[in-house]
Structure formats: C-alpha cells, structure tokens
Specification:
The complex is a heterodimer of chains A (495) and B (443).
Chain A lengths: L4 E3 L4 E2 H9 L5 H8 L12 H10 L20 E2 H4 L34 E7 L3 H12 L5 E4 L15 E2 L6 H21 L10 E5 L2 H16 L5 E3 L1 H7 L10 E5 L3 E2 L3 H13 L3 E3 L4 E7 L2 E7 L2 E10 L5 H7 L7 E10 L9 E4 L4 E5 L5 E5 L14 H14 L7 E12 L6 E5 L2 E8 L5 H18 L5 H4 L4 H4 L11
Parallel strand pairs in A: 4-5, 4-14, 5-11, 7-16, 14-21
Antiparallel strand pairs in A: 1-2, 3-19, 6-10, 7-9, 8-9, 12-13, 13-14, 15-18, 15-19, 16-17, 17-18, 20-21
Helix pairs in contact in A: 5-9, 5-12, 6-12
Chain B lengths: L1 E2 L7 E6 L2 E6 L4 H7 L6 E2 L6 E2 L12 E4 L2 E5 L10 E3 L14 H5 L16 H12 L17 E10 L3 H12 L4 E4 L8 H4 L18 E3 L2 E9 L2 E10 L2 E14 L3 E2 L13 E3 H9 L3 E2 L4 E5 L3 H11 L6 E4 L9 E11 L3 E8 L4 E5 L2 E5 L3 E2 L2 H5 L4 E4 L4 E4 L12 E3 L9 H19 L1
The chains are: A alpha+beta (495), B alpha/beta (443).
Chain lengths: 495, 443
C-alpha cells in the first residue's frame, strides 16, 4: 500500500505528522512523543530534518520556534556489556550530566498573546498532577481553571518516568490510593478516548539482604490485610516468573500480579484534552515569575505572559515546587533528586513483570513497544534540579542489569535521559492548605511515584476543593506535619 | 545489481536462513546479500512493509537482521565471516511472504494507536494483547556474550572527530602549527566524502594522507561526550580485530567534523527496497565495487546529484532519470518536478512524478537513488552545550558556529558539513580554517 514515510524506523508517515500538527502538537518534542518518530534504532538521524521541515512549511511554525528534540546519548546503539566495562568512582558523588540545559528565561515557543486575566483556580504545573486535577475539577463543574507549564506537556517527570504502577506500598494510605489509581487507569481509555496501554504483568521485588527481606514480608502482610494479593515467593518461585533471572544472593521475592506498567504520555494528553473541552485553559511554555499576596491570600499569579487574578492557586510543579513556593515566600522541605533511566532496542515480549531489586534501587520492565526501560538510584546523588545524563549511570545500571539477566549483555541501549524525584523528608507527599496562606494548595512531594498516584489523588483533591468537605488526607499530609513532627514514613521507595 | 570486480577477494559462504550465499571476507554482510540478489532484508515495525538497505551507514533501520544469534544488527556494518548466520526478523512465516503485511493493506491511511479501539470493551483488551505480541523487533540474544575488553584511556591536546574532508584539512592545519592531533574515524579508512561519494569536480583533490604526528584511530565512532565527576570525557566505540571496546578520551579541545546524515525525502513508497541514499550508492560503487543499478533514477538536489550521474555513467550504468526536486535546474538532462511516487513491492521498478508542466510521467528503473545535502550531525555539539537552530534555507538543524569553527562552548569547535552542508571544496576550506583558528586559540 502506498505510504510516504518520514520515519521509516517507526513507520511514521507524513500523514501521521500532519495529523499531529493538526491536533495542536506544534513543537518537535511533542510531535516525537505523539507520533513516535525518532524513537527507533536511528534515533532521528534520518527523519528529524524532514519532520522539522513539515512543521515549518506546513504547520507554519516560524524557524525560531522549530527546535530539535534533545539528542540523547549514546549516538549509536551500544551493548550493555560494553557499557558495563566503564570504571565508576563510587566514592565520588555524581556530578554534571549532558546535555546541559540551554533555555533560560522565556521559552522561544512562548505564545505571544497574554494569559487570561482571571481564573478561579490557577494550577501551577502541567504534569499529571495538575492536569488530572484540572480534569477532575472540570468534571465537578469547576471549569474556570488555568493550568500553567513552563514547557511542553511531557517535559517534566510525568514524561520521563518508567511507567510503573503498583499497589505494593508501606502505608495503608498509599496502598489505597494506588489501588484506586489503577482502577481509574483501567477506565481511562473509555472516558478519555485515548489508549494508555496498561499491562498488569505484576511487580516482582527481589530482596538481597535479610533486612529488606523482613521489610518485604511485613509489607506483604499489610497488603494482604488491605485486599492486595501480594505473595512472598522463594527465589525459585520468582525465577518461574522470569526464567532468565539470576537469583544469586536473593533471599526472597514479593510479587503482586495486579501491579503493572502504563505508557505515561497519553495520560497527560487525555486529561488535558478532556479538561480543555470543558473550558479549562492549558497554557504551555509559560513561566510563573511571582505571586501577588495581600494579607494571608494569594491574589494573582504573575507570569512572563502577564498576571492572572485568582481565588485559589494549586502548586503541582513536582521537583520545581520548592522553587515556585519560594516565590510566594513559602519554604517547602522537598528536595529534587535526579534519577536516570534508559531504554534499549525493542525486543519481542519476554519479560512480564517489572523487576526491582529493592536493595540497590535497580528496576526494569519491558514496555508495550518491547524496549527494556529501567533505572537505578544512586545513593550519592546530591539534591539538585539536574536532568543531565551520565556515563556513570550507564555503567552502574548495565552491570546491575546484566548481573540479574546475563543474556541482556548483548542488548543495545538506544537512549538515556533523567528526571527528578520530588523528595520529602518522610517520603510522603505534601497536600492541602498552606499554613498562613490557605488559598495556596500544595500538591507535591511524591518521591518518584506521583505519576501512579495522580489519578486517585486528583480525584480526592477536586472533590475536597469543590464540595468543601473534610478529608483526612489533606490533614495527614499537610505541610504542618514537619512542624508538629507527625511524619508519615513510606519505606517502599525504589532507588 | 552487479559486482564490478567479479574476480577478486577470498570467497566465503554465509548462511542466510539456510541458504548458502557467496560472500567476501570482511565486506559488510548487506553487500554480500545485495550482490546475491536478495531484496527484502527486514519487515518494518508496524506495517510489516518490505525493507532493504537504504543508508549503508547505520543511520536507518532498514537492514537490521539477527546475526549469529544477536538481534537488530546493522547488516550494513557487520563484516562477513565464514559461516556467519543471518536471519530476518519481525515476519511470519517468512520475510518474503509475511502475513502481517496485511496490516499495511488494512490501514491504508495509517494506524492511530492512540485512538484505535480506545475504551471499546473487550476489543481494547484483545488489541493490547495483540499489540504486545506484534511489538518489538528481534528476540533476546541466544547466549551470554563473552565479557568485552576493558576500556582504553587516551589523553590528547586536540581530538578531531571525523576523518572526512574537513577533519583531514583541520588535522593538517593543526599539525602544521605544531599541534599533534588524535583523529577518530568511524569508517575503515580516512577521507569520508572524498572516498565514499561521487567526485563533484573533474580531477578533484582527493588526498587523504595525514601528517605523521597525528594519531589516527579508524573504526572508532564517538558515542557521546560526557561531563561529570570525572571531567569531560569523549566516549568512543572501537571495532578492532580483537573485538569491540570503549575508548575514553580526555582532551583540551575537540573539533567535530562529523558530516551529516542521509535524510529522508518524503515521497510515496520512499521506503521500499531498491531506494538508496546517494551516499549508500556511491559507497557501494567506490569502496565495495558493487553497482546498485544499471538503470537508476536519481532524485533530490544538491552537489551530489550531477556527481552521481557522472559516477554511474562512468561505471557503465545509464541513469534513466535525473530529477531535481527543487526545480529550475538548467543542467542538460536534468528534469524538475514533484511529487514523486516509487513503484514496486519487494524491489523498486518504476518512479513517477509530476513535471513542472503538470504532466504525470513514469519511468522504469531498477533503483531509486535519493540525494539531499546531508543533515548536519548536530547531536554531539548539542550534547557539549552548543546551541542548535533550524535553518530554513537548508531545511535542517545546524549547530550555531562562527565562520572559523568557534562555538559558544570554549573547548568545542565544529567544521565542514557538520556545520553547514556544501561542496567537498567548501568542507576542506572550512576544516582548514577551523584547524588554523583552533591552533591560534591554543597558543
């Protein structure tokens, strides 16, 4: 059948790109994510110029607004076994990373027209938290909402995570929220008309020390009490689930078959589109520059496209939340921590569960597209808003992964990137009203699991905001707890 | 498709899905298969369209095969060894007759995976299962690969990345100024376009020698420039006789003369086997002595269009069409027009186009050779912190570089096609200028 290919690696046609532009995806990063162009073995070498030309000539985007998607290392596919040979200075803290961020100040894609003058609710942050909240508010009739984001819709952690969703948590609240989220994810395509590719292949946790084994045993009991079907397995039983897994040094495993992986990006597009259809305004490439505060109320949000007068502000900026909160004179205890991740060449399905070694923070799963997507925390990672990629991560991850599945040594890495966890002192989120500034609502501090919690958290937050009823979630996780000392420690954090 | 020097080279045999194919030791496996008349090398990821080699430079995915038990190997880059096993991927029952090619026919206007069956009860679940099984290319490697050699560490005052026209000129200029250079080249020989592309001028200077004080590493491709707690490290992959290994390089300054990528020209069926990039066609003729066509259609624009025509004619082929898609070209024998459409299923056998008078014309051909000015390889400069901008006149991205090769990043210099695509002569001048300016800057 006759087709005009722009990206032969991923079978993306000229019509696909035209369709994406017509749908409003008018920057190269978004077109890449929506169509999949540039994500194959060549990583955009053959197709990028053709897509950019289409955006410029047919989409009418001025040359200055046509920016390439960030070229990710490595420049050529390279085997994990080779990357594992790179020496790592474990005694040194990781530093730097590539590519360095080039955009400071206003974005070259910033829309020329001013932002709306007024809105009842302004949500700062167009990640999944903010967009899911906007959608839920609109569903309850609150459509006078503006969502602001400094970049395109998947630019932050919502577009950079591995897509894992699990109910295996260490606190009752997180277990309940995750279970509700997964239920909502199952209904997502029906409600929003966009596929999110939820695949419930389970999460298989491995413990390599008695301490972590004890932790997995205890949390499994907690899960079972809350109706989550987590099973404690012997290393042999774990290997029955993934036959290539090396179980050397593994004490025990915990497995919940109802956990899984999703494809993160369509959640953002789906929430944004349905909210916009109901009247919510989503303003991308727009920086928040300050807040107008009088007395104990935020009166307006200042942006590089003008001010928006408002009744309520929601801070849902993930790892950027402390930075934005400071503009309102609010100190948050969150710290951003880089977490690196990579994706390999696509392979036919061989791995069902997401596997995680809780001791080292290694995790990996196979995406619906067949790639191995995985990462590993670095205990020496300093707090910083750093989204650069390092050789150190490639080496550490390659060694840890090939130790677990030696046959993956011959599999090639296609690209690496990084995102920031938004880490709180007790690994639990910050929600509810800000003490002394009650119309500034907090919705941050999700420590790398905000994506999977967002559908449920946003549903509860919208109901609490619109119906003005009491919900203990917003007291339990209030910022005030760091003053009163009533912390809510979550222990099941990967990395 | 024929070999231009049928009598030379040690002959070995490779195993192509059980079929014995004569091959030459050390040539890329894709060459051997093309020479043996094979057309379908792979099936595309979604529509299972038949594909054959396009770029011969590991910059597309059309020649990917399972080779000796490893998935997704670029057959255009894998040197032949006796008894090598090649298998095609992502097809059932065979790549020649693949039942999943029906997807291409069932979805003539394309397949929108975002909305297809979204939220339709049962259907969406079935689709998810089917999609998972259809996704991916290739199976896990057969076995655990032996541990590679440890990385080599190198220090250099200046590293020049890319030993083509610009890189060689820069190396000479630096050397003349007393600065020894580490020169990295991904191919098995120096020269880049000077030896792999059709000569643009009669009697063009094609010197590919380097000064004796330059240290040259062939078959060494740069994977990235990292900047972390160990400093700024250029990471390269060396394909040596003893197997691959990484090379970690620290240098005071780096000059990127990387050339560009063979871009896609959008036209109908631009992906079918028998459509080659100009660089692939000239590389096959000049280095591999394999003529991809006796009656090629040459399309595109830029300095290689006429050069390819001359090259084919010199080798005894007769181009059936030389078509400049940018129109208005006055050279004799060159026609203008678009849009284009290639014809054929498992190999191209025709090309039609709309002439500038609006008439649709069709020619029979045995390959389509597409040549465009290369898209500058901006990835490495960008990773180093150099800004990149879209250049409407070139219709590509290019790093923001001054005329003498300097960039806003103190230790990064860029020259040649990797800065701005042009003629070989312009690339040489650009490389020399950058080499001289860098030498001055280091003094």
């Amino acid at each position: 059948m006759s087709k005009t290919l722009l990206c032969p690696c991923e079978d993306v046609t000229l019509e696909d790109v035209q369709h994406a532009i017509a749908k409003g995806y008018r920057d190269v990063e978004s077109i890449k994510r929506y169509t999949g162009f540039g994500t194959g073995l060549c990583q955009g070498k053959s197709c990028l110029a053709a897509v950019a030309r289409t955006l410029h000539t047919e989409g009418g985007v001025a040359a200055g607004g046509v920016l390439p998607f960030t070229p990710r290392p490595p420049l050529h596919p390279v085997e994990l076994s080779l990357l594992g040979t790179v020496p790592v200075a474990e005694q040194l803290a990781p530093k730097g990373g590539v590519p360095p961020a080039l955009h400071t100040g206003s974005h070259s894609l910033r829309p020329p027209e001013p932002v709306p003058e007024r809105a009842q609710v302004v949500i700062v942050g167009g990640g999944i938290m903010g967009l899911a909240l906007a959608h839920n508010l609109a569903k309850l009739g609150q459509t006078d909402v503006v969502v602001l984001d400094r970049g395109y819709l998947c630019a932050g952690a919502s577009g950079r995570n591995g897509g894992g969703v699990r109910m295996q948590w260490g606190t009752a609240t997180n277990i309940e929220l995750a279970r509700r989220s997964i239920d909502l994810m199952k209904q997502f395509a029906g409600e929003m008309g966009i596929n999110v590719w939820l695949r419930q292949g389970g999460y298989l946790f491995l413990a390599k020390s008695d301490k972590v084994a004890d932790q997995l045993r205890k949390t499994a009991e907690l899960h079972n009490r809350h109706g989550v079907n987590t099973q404690v397995l012997s290393p042999g039983e774990g290997r029955d689930l993934v036959k290539d897994l090396t179980m050397e040094g593994v004490v025990l495993c915990a497995y919940n078959p109802d956990d899984g992986v999703i494809f993160p990006w369509p959640f953002l597009w789906g929430y944004a589109q349905t909210a916009q259809k109901r009247g919510v305004r989503v303003e991308t490439f727009t920086n928040v520059t300050g807040f107008e505060i009088s007395g104990d109320r935020v009166r307006a949000v200042q942006t590089d496209r003008g001010r928006i007068g408002c009744d309520t502000v929601v801070l849902a900026a993930g790892a950027w939340s402390p930075e934005v909160a400071r503009l309102a004179g609010v100190q948050l205890p969150n710290e951003p921590h880089r977490h690196e991740i990579l994706s390999t060449e696509p392979l036919k399905p061989f791995l069902n569960p997401l596997v995680s070694v809780l001791d080292s923070g290694l995790y990996f799963s196979q995406s619906m597209r067949g790639e191995i997507v995985g990462g590993m925390g670095d205990p020496r990672e300093p707090a910083a808003l750093n989204q650069g990629s390092t050789l150190r991560f490639l080496a550490r991850f390659a060694r840890a992964l090939t130790e677990q599945i030696p046959r993956l040594g011959g599999v090639k890495v296609l690209r690496q990137w990084a995102g920031c966890y938004d880490v709180t002192p007790d690994n639990s989120p910050i929600l509810g009203r800000t003490p002394d500034l009650p119309n500034l609502l907090q919705m941050s501090g999700f420590v790398g699991h905000g994506f999977m919690m967002a559908p449920a958290v946003a549903e509860r937050t919208a109901a609490w905001m619109v119906k003005d009823t009491r919900d203990e979630l917003f007291e339990r996780f209030n910022l005030q707890r760091f003053v009163t000392g009533k912390l809510e420690r979550e222990t099941m954090i990967i990395g | 498709m024929r070999r231009l020097d049928p009598g030379t080279g040690p002959d070995v045999t490779i195993d192509f899905e059980g079929k014995a194919i004569p091959a030459r030791l050390g040539e890329p496996a894709a060459c051997s298969l093309l020479a043996a008349g094979e057309s379908v090398f792979s099936r595309s990821i979604k529509y299972h369209r038949p594909r054959g080699p396009f770029c011969m430079a590991a910059s597309c995915s059309q020649c990917l095969m399972r080779i000796d038990g490893l998935p997704n190997q670029f057959s255009c880059q894998t040197p032949v060894q006796d008894g090598m096993r090649l298998e095609r991927q992502n097809a059932f029952p065979t790549a020649r007759v693949d039942v999943f090619a029906s997807i291409d026919w069932l979805f003539p206007r394309g397949l929108d995976h975002h909305s297809m069956f979204a939220g339709v009860p049962v259907a969406d679940k079935v689709m998810a299962v089917v999609a998972r099984q259809l996704a991916g290319l290739g199976l896990l490697p057969d076995k655990v690969e032996p541990a590679p050699r440890p990385p080599e560490r190198l220090d250099a005052q200046v590293t020049v990345v890319g030993g083509g026209a610009a890189g060689l000129a820069a190396t000479r200029a630096l050397s003349a100024a007393g600065i020894p250079v580490l020169l990295l080249e991904g191919e098995d020989r120096l020269g880049g376009r000077l030896v792999l592309e059709a000569p643009e001028e009669h009697g063009e200077a094609r010197a590919t020698t380097v000064p004796t004080d330059a240290k040259v590493r062939l078959q060494t491709s740069v994977l990235g420039l990292y900047d972390d707690e160990l400093g700024r490290v250029l990471v390269a992959l060396e394909h040596g006789a003893e197997g691959p290994r990484l090379v970690l390089i620290k240098s005071k300054a780096m000059l990127f003369t990387l050339g560009g990528h063979a871009g896609v020209l959008p036209f109908e069926n631009n992906d079918i086997p028998g459509v080659f990039s100009g660089r692939a066609a000239s590389d096959l003729v000049l280095r591999r002595r394999l003529l991809v066509a006796d009656a090629p259609a040459l399309v595109g624009y830029g300095s290689q269009l006429a050069a390819l025509q001359r090259m084919f004619e010199q080798e005894g082929a007769r181009p059936v069409l030389v078509l400049d898609v940018r129109a208005g070209s006055g050279a004799s024998g060159v026609v203008a027009g678009q849009p284009l459409r290639a014809h054929g299923r498992t190999w191209v056998h025709g090309l039609s186009f709309r002439t500038s008078e609006g008439r649709v014309q069709r020619v029979d051909c045995d390959s389509v050779v597409v040549t465009l000015p290369p898209a500058p390889a901006f990835e490495l400069p960008r990773q180093a912190g150099v800004k990149v901008a879209f250049q409407p006149a070139l219709e590509t991205f290019a790093p923001v570089v001054e005329a003498d090769g300097r960039t806003a990043v103190h230790d990064i210099w860029v020259a040649g096609d990797g800065h701005q695509p042009g003629t070989a002569r312009e690339a040489i001048d650009s490389g020399r200028r950058a080499g001289e300016a860098l030498a001055r800057a280091l003094r």
